[in-house]
Design a protein that fits this description.
By secondary structure, this protein is mainly beta. It has one domain (about 1-195): Jelly Rolls (Sandwich). The chain has strands at about 1-5, 15-20, 25-30, 35-40, 55, 60, 65-75, 80-90, 95-100, 110-115, 120, 135-145, 150-155, 165, 175-180, 185-190, 195.
């Protein structure tokens, strides 16, 4: 069933999220379309390439779910542009993260897990060929199967996942969105889930 939906047309939508850098996030409107955006960061030397700008959905812990969203990435001063999704998040030291970027290499495109200070890539060393364009809205779909422990990622109109992994490290947790260093936007979030635990996790 559809559990959560957000198009950011109401200023109160910000109350649905926790932000690690609240001053860097805001609601914007382009030609009548409202969306959530972060302003990026001034430095391009982000330690370990972890998401540095995060918006995490409040008071909702998910196991199985399907998430769809429209995302739009601009570039930082190095020409790097990406979006990141987090899931299975219990704290800022423990979560899965999906990184989609214009750099199809082992460090910048894939599914990763972070536990304490250690992070590792769960997908292949070579990223699939994906047309990931700057200044364009892309549709991302994430399917999480908690029984099979799988995570699948679809981009735009792909009928096959561009990223897939099976991992037993983490189970239920919060979901969120962000980037490493560049500005990015998100809109039209939809989350389908059979069960949701109304549990407040104070992440930041």
């Amino acid at each position: 069933m559809l559990h959560y939906q957000q198009n950011f047309s109401n200023s109160k939508s910000l109350l649905d999220f926790q932000f690690n850098n609240p001053g860097d996030w805001g609601l914007f409107n382009t030609k009548g379309n409202f969306y959530l955006q972060n302003s990026g960061t001034d430095t391009i030397s982000i330690k370990n390439g972890l998401p540095s700008n995060l918006a995490v959905l409040n008071q909702m812990t998910y196991g199985d779910f399907i998430l769809e969203a429209s995302v739009y990435a601009d570039s930082d001063t190095s020409g790097f542009f990406n979006v990141c999704f987090v899931l299975g998040l219990k704290s800022k030291e423990q979560y899965y993260y999906i990184k989609i970027s214009n750099r199809n290499d082992s460090a910048d495109f894939g599914i990763f897990v972070l536990k304490q200070t250690l992070h590792k890539k769960l997908t292949g060393t070579v990223a699939p060929a994906v047309k990931w364009e700057r200044n364009k809205w892309h549709k991302v779909r994430i399917e999480r199967n908690i029984v099979e422990r799988t995570i699948e990622v679809y981009i735009d109109n792909n009928t096959q996942p561009v990223l897939r992994t099976k991992d037993y490290e983490l189970v239920m947790g919060c979901v969120g969105y962000g980037s490493v260093s560049n500005p990015c936007r998100i809109d039209d979030i939809k989350i389908w889930a059979p069960t949701v635990i109304p549990e407040k996790t104070q992440v930041f």
